[in-house]
Specification:
With 406 residues, the chain is of the alpha+beta class. The chain contains 17 helices and ten strands. Helix 10 runs antiparallel to helix 12 and helix 12 runs antiparallel to helix 14. The structure holds adenosine-5'-triphosphate and magnesium ion. Keywords: ATP-binding, Kinase, Nucleotide-binding, Serine/threonine-protein kinase, Transferase.
């Protein structure tokens, strides 16, 4: 497997190699770069879900997104140079100071259209401050030089991906995430690679990890938790409609937009990967649904209902500050298989009711997402179109995050 090499595995994605003699730099035409569906489905090895995900009538890429202030302010600004230097030198010769990136991310939101060039390459981006580091990727704030579009550039080293034997997951992450358009799902605008690295051009999540907010606040007030759960339910409904199962819903995989809105991230690591189970098992068990713990249950046992269970765990953790089955490894497993948990008395009866309807052992009996959105706890706290942050800052006046774009 590994001997085939990543380079060849990614060949079919027809991305620009930075070392292609600068051909990418010379191209001027702006066109959408879309990987043909026929090519994508060839790549999936037993990836029925992937085929299903892609067989949906996906519209041409929708590129209108809400991002932190961009080109207009950029061009108008006369930002001074500062000590903030980019972590890596970009290959282009543009002389704009990179610390403007930091300023740009702090400005007011606006609707902006992501340019869709035929091919992306590193020279098109000015690299800003590091946003974080994952198992395989390092993520940087970045700005597309031509338009000033602010994004996050995730850099994956091919050697690390190969060593970690996650080539397939990375490819699926790219294929699936780039076909999703929803305000509560982190968008993948495009990707490219050079001889050593793969670059993912991601929507910039201005407020970072939800996990950090939760740890800082210990637990969320009910109105905020309800708003987050409503946004999660809306995003999951959209995913399930496209036959995509996230399977790894937890606070660590949720980022927050500049208005404090939910952005689900981390696709592909476990979405359609039966052979991925061991890796999942090595991580936290807290969010694993009981049907995924059953021994000998084959590869067909999991369905979209696993995300409902995780949504229940999430609601609990938002309100209580810790996951419902948090315990020793053995005990967590045992308690999950019995749905053995207690909701503390400070949690409202409505919230408790929703948690109990989600944390049901029989996947078929879990409350469906449509009903989650209509549940009294959600109805009580979430006026349609209202977001957590709009309560904090009434002036933001943005569009409902509960409505997907299709
Ligand atoms: P894993 O390797 O398990 O996926 P991870 O999710 O932490 O771990 P990455 O997705 O590589 O790894 O991201 C690393 C960190 O960078 C994140 O935890 C987050 O803090 C930050 N980050 C990633 N993507 C973005 C983004 N689009 N906008 C803002 N910050 C981001
Ligand atoms: Mg991640």
């Amino acid at each position: 497997m590994a001997s085939r090499g990543l380079e060849s595995r990614f060949e079919h994605l027809s991305v620009t190699d930075e070392n292609d003699g600068g051909e990418g730099l010379k191209k001027t035409g702006l066109k959408s770069k879309v990987v043909p569906k026929s090519q994508l489905s060839q790549t999936s090895n037993g990836g029925n879900l992937l085929k299903m995900a892609l067989s949906n009538n996906n519209p041409a890429p929708v590129t209108t997104v809400t991002v932190p202030s961009q080109a207009a302010q950029w061009r108008g600004s006369n930002a001074p140079t500062s000590a903030t230097s980019p972590p890596r030198k970009a290959t282009s010769t543009s002389s704009r100071p990179s610390d403007e990136l930091v300023k740009a991310e702090q400005k007011a939101p606006q609707i902006y259209v992501m340019p869709q060039p035929k091919e992306f390459h590193l020279g098109m981006f000015e690299i800003g401050r590091p946003l974080g580091k994952g198992k395989f990727g390092r993520v940087y704030l970045a700005r597309e030089r031509g338009t000033g579009f602010i994004c996050a550039l995730k850099v994956l080293h091919k050697s690390e991906i190969q060593q970690g034997k996650v080539e397939k997951q990375v490819r699926r992450e790219i294929e699936i995430q780039s076909n999703l358009r929803h305000p509560n799902i982190l968008q993948l605008y495009g990707h490219f690679h050079d001889s050593k690295r793969i670059f993912l051009i991601l929507e910039f999540a201005g407020k970072g990890e939800l996990y950090k907010h939760l740890r800082r606040e210990n637990r969320f007030p009910e109105w905020k938790a309800a708003s987050y759960i409503a946004q999660m339910a809306a995003a999951l409904k959209y995913l399930h409609k496209k036959h995509v199962i996230h399977r790894d819903i937890k606070p660590e995989n949720i980022l927050m937009g500049i208005h404090g809105e939910i952005k689900i991230s981390d696709f592909g690591w476990s979405v359609h990967a039966p052979n991925n189970r061991r890796q999942t098992m090595c991580g936290t068990l807290d969010y694993l649904p009981p049907e995924m713990l059953k021994p000998g249950s084959g590869d067909n046992w999991y369905g979209e209902k696993v995300d409902l269970w995780s949504l229940g765990v999430l609601a609990y953790e938002f309100l209580v500050g810790e996951a419902p089955f948090e315990d020793t490894m053995i005990m967590t497993q045992r308690r999950i298989t019995r749905a053995d948990m207690t909701v503390p008395s400070f949690v409202s009866p409505e919230a408790k009711d929703l948690i109990k309807r989600l944390l049901v052992l029989d996947p078929e009996k879990r409350i469906p997402l449509d009903q989650v959105l209509l549940h009294p706890w959600i109805m009580k706290h979430c006026v349609k179109g209202e977001r957590a942050t709009q309560r904090e800052s009434k002036s933001s006046g943005s569009k409902s995050s509960l409505e997907g774009r299709e």
